[in-house]
Amino acid sequence: HYTQSQISSLGSARYRDAMSSVFTAIIHGDLPGSIIYSDDVCVALLTITPHTRGHALVVPREEINAWTDAPDDLLAHLTSVAKRIGRAQLAEFGGTRSGLMIQGYGVDHLHLHVFPTTGIDDFDERARPAATATELAEVAELLIARLQLDGSNGT
Question: How much is the pTM?
Answer without folding.
Answer: 0.85
